[in-house]
């Protein structure tokens, strides 16, 4: 099956839609050790640079009447701050830098990944699983530290009839542990699917007859992907806030 | 033969994407219907809308993932 | 599909580069996780140490400026209202004063007029009394003259007729006539 990953000679697509996700060492060599600088490393670093440019260099004038970049930074700040305050509650404000970090990294990685020839770090499960596990561990630890054993009340639906409660507790427990899975796969899956679809259309562009259709389709998909890039970052962040609210106020 | 069966399985799993599309459409449509009845309450519920869409879409993404696994990993 | 040759080629490709789905190639997960953790740490410290406090300060400063400006505007508005009130009060005062002055002047003029009228009336009355006195004198004088003339005339007439006139009789006759 793996031969189809390079199926140019098979008469299929000119290039494989998943090839764009291959991780390559940046400075030669074949093996990828844990410290090797790869294209994933490069694009993660670029997302750091983008965050610094927007949030630090953009706001360096500290103007009362903001410049364009400063107002974008302030917009991002206000957007996430309000989200944390509204969804997770006032006492979740101390997690604001953490949530802001997640949001800024995901949104920057998503948008940088939309550049042609770029590499999308958030399309890799390794990245999103770590992000989701960080959220999951934070929520679980904060929940137990804040509420002690009372955090287990999250699984004990006291409004349900007594007979149903054990069953509901099992369902709640399963859904609690599925959270990091869906949380990570949603982000990576959306980003990967969008990029793969664009590549599939790009592969069809090699056939002269359908190439106009495929160019139009790529344009349309690209527009959709710009939307998805932001919405997935938003969804990841807001779900983090929702989980955090569960940890801080576990009453069901 | 086994590979071809995997491809068929991948195609079947892709049906899940359509099911997720129905779910997302349901969420968005009901939100719109509610928003048109009571536009003043609509703005406060956009977060809920996106959470609902995210949950509905996640399951579609799972089926997409199954398709990908069948295509490339089996 | 998956013939022997393909299988061989596939294995060769697998060795050369990543397998079909690079996301499931667990050999590079350690690398990605390592760099991701570094990335997140850097972003976290940049945001929490520099960017977020700065933006919070700017937002607070802007909020303060806006609040101050609104307060200043309210102060100015209150001052304007005060000034308008003072102006209105001054206007009302001036109007009242003007009315007072007008009334005073009117009263003064009225008093002057009354005095003048009274004086004129008194003068007129005095003149009228004088005139009446003079007329009465003249009238009395005229009656005397008439009596004299009549007496003289009567004497002359009596003498001409050849009679001898008694003065007393004539005077009585004249008096009677004049009264009649």
TrEMBL record, chain A:
One Gene Ontology molecular-function label: proton-transporting ATP synthase activity, rotational mechanism
Membrane-crossing residue ranges in chain numbering: 32-57, 95-113, 125-145, 151-175, 196-220, 226-244
Locations listed in the record: Cell membrane; Membrane
GO CC, alphabetical: plasma membrane; proton-transporting ATP synthase complex
InterPro entries for the chain: ATP_synth_F0_asu (IPR000568), ATP_synth_F0_asu_AS (IPR023011), ATP_synth_F0_asu_bact/mt (IPR045083), F0_ATP_A_sf (IPR035908)
Role this protein plays: Key component of the proton channel; it plays a direct role in the translocation of protons across the membrane.
Protein name, as recorded: ATP synthase subunit a
Automatic annotation (TrEMBL), chain B:
Gene Ontology molecular functions: lipid binding; proton-transporting ATP synthase activity, rotational mechanism
Keyword terms, alphabetized: ATP synthesis, Cell membrane, CF(0), Hydrogen ion transport, Ion transport, Lipid-binding, Membrane, Transmembrane, Transmembrane helix, Transport
Top-level lineage group: Bacteria
Transmembrane stretches, start-end: 6-28, 49-73
Site (Reversibly protonated during proton transport): 57
Membrane topology field: Multi-pass membrane protein
Alphabetized Gene3D superfamilies for the sequence: F1F0 ATP synthase subunit C
V-ATPase proteolipid subunit C-like domain segment(s): 8-70
Keyword Transport: yes
Major site of localization recorded for this protein: membrane
Family from the record: Belongs to the ATPase C chain family.
Purpose: Key component of the F(0) channel; it plays a direct role in translocation across the membrane. A homomeric c-ring of between 10-14 subunits forms the central stalk rotor element with the F(1) delta and epsilon subunits.
Protein's name according to its UniProt entry: ATP synthase subunit c
Organism field: Shimia abyssi
Gene name, Swiss-Prot/TrEMBL: atpE
From TrEMBL, chain C:
Pfam family, one: ATP-synt_B
Family: Belongs to the ATPase B chain family.
Keyword Nucleotidyltransferase on entry: no
Annotated GO CC locations: endomembrane system; plasma membrane; proton-transporting ATP synthase complex
Gene: atpG_2
Function: F(1)F(0) ATP synthase produces ATP from ADP in the presence of a proton or sodium gradient. F-type ATPases consist of two structural domains, F(1) containing the extramembraneous catalytic core and F(0) containing the membrane proton channel, linked together by a central stalk and a peripheral stalk. During catalysis, ATP synthesis in the catalytic domain of F(1) is coupled via a rotary mechanism of the central stalk subunits to proton translocation.
Keywords per UniProt: ATP synthesis, Cell membrane, CF(0), Coiled coil, Hydrogen ion transport, Ion transport, Membrane, Transmembrane, Transmembrane helix, Transport
Topological relation to the membrane, as annotated: Single-pass membrane protein
Keyword set includes Transport: yes
TM regions (residue ranges): 33-52
Chief localisation class: membrane
UniProt subunit comment: F-type ATPases have 2 components, F(1) - the catalytic core - and F(0) - the membrane proton channel. F(1) has five subunits: alpha(3), beta(3), gamma(1), delta(1), epsilon(1). F(0) has three main subunits: a(1), b(2) and c(10-14). The alpha and beta chains form an alternating ring which encloses part of the gamma chain. F(1) is attached to F(0) by a central stalk formed by the gamma and epsilon chains, while a peripheral stalk is formed by the delta and b chains.
Lineage: Bacteria, Pseudomonadati, Pseudomonadota, Alphaproteobacteria, Rhodobacterales
Coiled coil regions in record: 73-139
Matches recorded under PANTHER family: ATP SYNTHASE SUBUNIT B, ATP SYNTHASE SUBUNIT B', CHLOROPLASTIC
Subcellular location: Cell membrane; Endomembrane system
Protein name per the record: ATP synthase subunit b
GO molecular function annotation: proton-transporting ATP synthase activity, rotational mechanism; proton-transporting ATPase activity, rotational mechanism
InterPro entries: ATP_synth_b/b'su_bac/chlpt, ATP_synthase_B_chain
């Amino acid at each position: 099956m793996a031969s189809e990953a390079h199926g140019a000679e098979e008469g299929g697509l000119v290039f494989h839609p998943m090839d764009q996700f291959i991780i390559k060492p940046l400075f030669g060599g074949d093996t990828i050790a844990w410290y090797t600088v790869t294209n994933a490393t490069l694009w993660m670093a670029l997302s750091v640079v983008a965050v610094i440019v927007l949030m630090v260099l953009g706001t360096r004038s500290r103007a009362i009447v903001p410049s364009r970049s400063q107002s974008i930074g302030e917009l991002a700040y206000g957007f996430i701050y309000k989200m944390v305050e509204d969804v997770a509650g006032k006492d979740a404000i101390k997690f604001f830098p953490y949530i802001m970090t997640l949001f800024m990294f995901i949104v920057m990685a998503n948008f940088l990944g939309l550049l042609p020839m770029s590499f999308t770090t958030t399309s890799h499960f390794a990245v999103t699983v770590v992000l989701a596990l960080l959220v999951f561990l934070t929520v679980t630890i904060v929940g137990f530290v804040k509420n002690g054993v009372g955090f287990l009340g999250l699984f004990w639906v006291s409004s349900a009839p007594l007979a149903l409660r054990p069953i509901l507790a099992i369902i709640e427990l399963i859904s609690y542990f599925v959270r990091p899975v869906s949380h990570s796969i949603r982000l990576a899956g959306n980003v990967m699917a969008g990029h793969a679809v664009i590549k599939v259309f790009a592969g069809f562009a090699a056939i002269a007859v359908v190439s106009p259709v495929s160019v139009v389709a790529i344009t349309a998909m690209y527009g959709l992907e710009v939307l998805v890039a932001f919405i997935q970052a938003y969804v990841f962040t807001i779900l983090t806030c929702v989980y955090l609210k569960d940890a801080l106020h576990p009453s069901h | 033969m086994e590979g071809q069966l995997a491809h068929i399985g991948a195609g079947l799993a892709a049906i899940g994407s359509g099911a997720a599309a129905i779910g997302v459409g349901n969420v968005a449509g009901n939100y719109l219907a509610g928003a048109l009845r009571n536009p003043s309450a609509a703005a406060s519920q956009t977060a809920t809308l996106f959470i609902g869409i995210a949950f509905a879409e996640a399951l579609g993404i799972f089926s997409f993932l199954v398709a990908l696994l069948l295509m490339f990993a089996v | 599909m998956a013939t022997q040759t393909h299988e061989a080629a596939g294995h060769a490709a697998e060795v050369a580069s990543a397998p079909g789905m690079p996301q499931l190639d667990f050999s590079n997960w350690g690398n990605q996780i390592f760099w991701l953790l570094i990335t997140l740490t850097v972003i976290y410290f940049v945001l929490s140490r520099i960017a977020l406090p700065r933006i919070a300060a700017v937002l607070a400063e802007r909020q303060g400026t806006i609040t101050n400006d609104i307060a200043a505007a309210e102060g100015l508005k209150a001052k304007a209202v005060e000034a308008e009130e003072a102006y209105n009060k001054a206007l009302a005062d001036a109007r009242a004063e003007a009315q007072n002055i007008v009334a005073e002047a009117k009263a003064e003029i009225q008093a002057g007029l009354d005095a003048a009228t009274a004086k004129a009336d008194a003068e007129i009355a005095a003149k009228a009394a004088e005139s009446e006195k003079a007329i009465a004198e003249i009238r009395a004088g005229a009656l005397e003259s008439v009596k004299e003339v009549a007496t003289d005339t009567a004497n002359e007439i009596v003498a001409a007729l050849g009679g001898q006139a008694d003065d007393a009789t004539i005077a009585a006759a004249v008096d009677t006539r004049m009264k009649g």
